Amino acid sequence: NLKNYCKKILIVDFKNIKLINNFLNKIDSKQIMEVLIGSGLNKLTLKKLNLSERFNRGNSLITHNIINSENFFSILKNEKINLPNWTVKKPNSSNYLIKKFYSFGGNDIRNFKKEYSPGKLEYFQKKIKGEHISVQYFVYKKEIKILSICDQLFLNRDSRPYIIECIISKKEDLKLKREL
């Protein structure tokens, strides 16, 4: 649970930069507190945040750029990290999702449609049946610390069925932690 690791937690629309900056200035006017910027923030948002001298424990702009590219899949493969089958070529099967390389939180993820032509920054990912979870973790020098495992609840929208409405912390499951 993030409350075990954070002094304050702000839940806000990523587009509300002014609210985020006001919150940071209110709780840390001396700008000495560390922050943890989640993966949902895009590079434009990061540039607008007033992080000043605060140490960001989250991903840097450089890391965000790597994660949000086709090259990231090659890195994962080289590190022998399992990931779903994916392709930039249109598959014959409808058992795929259409995703953008910079998608997060269910944004820019759609079900496969035969008539759809992918854009330059899109790819197809094979669907995997199973439980929808979100894992929050911290990595330092290749040591991984799982902070929380959460169930994902989705908005009920036909056009965008994978938008995450909220995540709820799961009871600690040591078997699942070992699998992750």
Q: How does this structure look, described?
A:
- The chain has 180 residues and is of the alpha+beta class.
- 21% of the residues lie in helices and 23% in strands.
- The protein is built from five helices and seven strands.
- The protein has helices at residues 17-27, 43-48, 61-67, 71-78, 174-179, and strands at residues 86-87, 96-100, 109-111, 122-126, 133-140, 143-154, 164-169.
- The chain has a four-stranded antiparallel β-sheet with strand order 1-4-2-3, with no helix packed on it. A three-stranded antiparallel β-sheet has the order 5-6-7, with no helix packed on it.
- The mean pLDDT is 82.
Please describe the topology of this protein:
Elements: H1 17-27, H2 43-48, H3 61-67, H4 71-78, E1 86-87, E2 96-100, E3 109-111, E4 122-126, E5 133-140, E6 143-154, E7 164-169, H5 174-179
Antiparallel strand pairs: 1-4, 2-3, 2-4, 5-6, 6-7
Count of separate DSSP helical elements? 5
Q: What integer is the average pLDDT?
A: 82
Largest sheet: 4 strands, antiparallel
Low-pLDDT stretches: none
| Strand adjacency order, main sheet | 1-4-2-3
The residue fraction in helices comes out at: 10-25%
N to C succession of SSEs:
HHHHEEEEEEEH
Shape: globular
N- to C-terminal distance: 17 Å
What Rg do the Cα atoms give? 18 Å
Tell me the fraction of residues in β-strands, as a range: 15-25%
